[in-house]
Each structure stands twice: as C-alpha cells, then as structure tokens.
Amino acid sequence: MSSGILQLGNILGCILQPIYLCLFIIFTKKLSKKRMIFIILTIMQYFIIQNIAKFDLNINADLLFIILFYLNIKVLYGKKGRITDLITYIISFLLMGIVNMICILLFGIKIITIIIANIVLILFIIFIKEKLNNIEKFYNKFWNKHDFKFIKSVTIRGFSATLTIITFVILHFWITYGVFIGRR
C-alpha cells in the first residue's frame, strides 16, 4: 500500500472511530445536549493523539485517549460522568476490536476494510441505540449496592476489571500480530 492510501485510511479512522465511540456513550447515557461539541472535541483529540503524539505500538496512545475521553464526559456533562463510563468505553472498544478483526480477516488490510468496519459499527450502534441504556442502568443499579443479595457490587467491579484487563491484553496481542504481519 502506498503511503497516501495509508494516510487516507488513518484520517478516515481518526474520524469514524471517535464518532462510533461517542455515539456509543451518547446512546448509553442518553445524552441529549452538547453532542456535537463532544463528538468534535473527541475527533480532534483522537486525531492529535494518533498522528502527533507518537507512542510505542499505539497502546499508550489508546490509554491517553481513554483518559481524555473520560475527561470530556466529566467536563461537558458534569455529574452525569461516572467512573463506570470507563467500563462502558471498554465495552465499546472491545466491540470495535471484534468487528475490526472480523473485517480484516474477511477483507484483508485495505482501506475499504477500515470504511466497512467503522460504518458497520456506527450503523449497529444506531440500530440498537434504545438497548444501550441498559448498560448504564445496570451499572447505576449494581455499582455501589451492598445489600442486594443476587449480585454484589464487588462482583460487578471484579467483572469490570477483568473485562478491562482482557481487552488490553487482546489489544496488545492484536497490535503485536499486526506489527509482525506488517513487517513481512
């Protein structure tokens, strides 16, 4: 692939991926105000992090982005921003990784793969937007509850921590695999 095509794919990814991540949070939290500001701010930060702040294998860039993404929610939405938004982000990121892996296995590493994967994600989120609020309701109900007999908050926190660790391990191996294949 030429460097021009790679740069175009990078620019498309820097626009479509933050849109997907923002829509996931917007629909999960049922945010109705400041949506465009949130999306534009997130796209700008994502673009800067991915293209200007160079890190080793982009893992550190993704960690920096999740922190800025959470800060965007806290600054723009105040008390609606909760620590559980980080887990919601991880869930959306895991879904994005799975769809990207499937698309790469089906279509190979091409610019059309980036477009297809991101459009599929955005359409999927729009299609299930009414169901996404169940994630927020679940975490609001169980995150700090100690008297509920069926499921304890420590179980939810443990599951969330495990999901986060698994996501970053999968991300690490996927990027390592991509770097290894890319060097062939």
What features would you describe in this structure?
The longest helix has 30 residues, at 153-182. With 184 residues, the protein is mostly helical. It has one domain (3-182). The mean pLDDT is 76. 80% of the residues lie in helices and 0% in strands. Helix 1 (3-29) packs parallel to helix 5 and helix 4 (84-107) packs across helix 5 (111-127). The protein is built from 7 helices and no strands. The chain has helices at 3-29, 35-51, 59-77, 84-107, 111-127, 129-142, 153-182.
Note the topology.
Elements: H1 3-29, H2 35-51, H3 59-77, H4 84-107, H5 111-127, H6 129-142, H7 153-182
The 3D shape can be described as globular
What class do helices, strands and sheet pairing give?
mainly alpha
Termini gap: 13 Å
Unreliable spans: none
| Structure summary, number of beta strands | 0
Order of helices and strands: HHHHHHH
Which whole number gives the mean pLDDT? Answer: 76
In DSSP terms (H or I, runs of 4 or more residues), the helix count works out at 7
Total count of domains: 1
- Rg over CA atoms, rounded to whole Å, is 17 Å
What about the largest sheet? none
Helix content: over 70%
Which percent band covers the strand fraction?
A: under 5%
